[in-house]
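Per your request, structure below.
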């Protein structure tokens, strides 16, 4: 007999997803007690045993674990040039936007997020009173990334060059409340002068960061746009590699070109560490040309080709054995906060991933990447009650995630978008 609580919530669903079998469970009832899932079973039996519980009728919906986005930038505005806008704004405006963006993500069905680079001010979002003012998802905040002087994202306020600087930087971030450590191992496209195709840190430096972060219990992730950056990050034992862009500078048009080097990458076959691709980052910038609304110039044609290469690289890296996670880079140019599930659609529709595999990427894989595999990412007894309800079944139509009818985060009802 379940111990009665006035805060218990009994949900009657059309179906409940089981992450282990990748099927809809035979049971239609889910009992939430406080912040956690207490029991899953036949609704009639649970109702008889828990007559005190408040009931929620979702018999026209399938229940799934809330999505997890491992790479966003809450302070960015997702407009044409977020860096320019960021630098022009007062920090109080950026903080308000970040809170709003986090709320949008929660209401769209993303119940856990990792911010992949911000100012120190963003850490105040973790204050419980902030969540009382505006509901937000579970937050894992990395604060300012570790980057070299003049490196990618240095304009967030921090630069680190020496080994001592890097180790101290890890300790400082743990002290100030960061939940993860982000390292920038190459330049980036959003930071003029950083050289997206250049490598920033040595293997020894990366290993020192990883060792210190591991000692402090913090997961690590590395911004990586080149093959050499990937090699260094893997040899340095970073927990998750971001982007895996494999960029080189095209000597004819001076644009960045994705070139997968199988003779190099094959050396890492069987490595199961996490990686985040972010295929939908900047994706909407090419919508008019992809749809045929506008005639592409040679430049857009080149970028569309690079987009297909990005899809192919994702397939190649999965084939090597690395574990994909869900990250969109929301906040960058026209990469929107309410579109976490769009990445899953691309995995299925362009990368050949099954619906069940895509769901794993957006839930259990991403939870493990954040070190939260025993907390969230699946609907099971003892896990956080992070639940989304949809009329359509994502196992049959991955686009079902676009329309969430109900969001529940830590057992509390959240008004969906």
């Amino acid at each position: 007999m379940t111990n009665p609580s006035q805060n218990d919530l009994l949900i009657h669903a059309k179906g409940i997803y089981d992450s282990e079998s990748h099927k809809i469970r035979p049971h239609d009832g889910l009992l939430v007690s406080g912040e956690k899932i207490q029991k899953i079973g036949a609704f009639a039996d649970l109702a008889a045993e828990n007559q005190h519980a408040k009931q929620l009728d979702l018999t026209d919906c399938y229940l799934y674990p809330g999505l997890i986005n491992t790479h966003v930038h809450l302070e960015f505005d997702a407009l044409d040039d977020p860096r320019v806008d960021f630098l022009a704004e007062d920090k109080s405006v950026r903080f308000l936007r970040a809170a709003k963006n986090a709320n949008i993500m929660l209401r769209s069905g993303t119940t856990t997020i990792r911010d992949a680079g911000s100012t120190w001010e963003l850490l105040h979002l973790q204050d419980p009173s902030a969540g009382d003012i505006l509901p937000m998802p579970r937050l894992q905040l990395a604060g300012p990334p570790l980057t070299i002087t003049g490196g990618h994202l240095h304009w967030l306020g921090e630069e680190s060059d020496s080994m001592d600087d890097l180790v101290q930087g890890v300790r400082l971030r743990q002290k100030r409340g960061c939940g993860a450590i982000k390292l920038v191992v190459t330049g980036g496209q959003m930071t003029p002068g950083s050289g997206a195709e250049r490598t920033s840190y040595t293997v020894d430096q990366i290993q020192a960061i990883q060792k210190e972060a591991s000692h402090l219990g913090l997961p690590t992730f590395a911004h990586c746009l080149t093959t050499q950056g990937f090699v260094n990050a893997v040899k340095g034992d970073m927990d998750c590699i971001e982007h895996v862009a494999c960029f080189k500078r095209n000597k004819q048009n001076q644009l960045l070109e994705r070139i997968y080097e199988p003779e190099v990458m094959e050396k890492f076959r069987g490595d199961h560490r996490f990686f985040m691709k972010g295929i939908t980052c900047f994706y909407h910038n090419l919508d008019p040309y992809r749809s045929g609304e506008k005639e592409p110039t040679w430049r857009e044609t080149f970028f569309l080709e690079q987009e297909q290469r990005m899809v192919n690289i994702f397939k190649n890296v999965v084939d090597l054995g690395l574990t994909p996670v869900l990250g969109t880079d929301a906040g960058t140019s026209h990469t929107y906060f309410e579109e976490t599930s769009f990445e899953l659609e691309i995995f299925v529709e362009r990368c050949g991933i099954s619906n069940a595999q895509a769901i794993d990427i957006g839930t259990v894989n991403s939870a493990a990447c954040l070190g939260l595999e025993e907390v969230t990412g699946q609907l099971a007894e003892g896990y956080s009650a992070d639940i989304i309800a949809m009329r359509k079944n994502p196992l049959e139509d991955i686009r079902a995630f676009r329309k969430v009818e109900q969001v529940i985060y830590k057992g509390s009802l959240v008004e969906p978008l």
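The longest strand covers residues 54-65.

Regards,
D.
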